[in-house]
Amino acid sequence: DADANFVLTDYGGIVEIQSTAETIPFSQEKYSELFALAKKGIGEINIIQKKCLKLKWKKKIDNEEIVIASHNKGKVSEIKDLLKNYDLKILSSSDLGIEEPEENGSSFEENALIKSSVTSTLSKTVSLSDDSGLCVNALGGQPGIYSARWAGPDKDFLYAAEKIHENLLEKGADDYSAYFICVLAVSWPDG
Question: Active-site positions?
Answer without folding.
Answer: 131
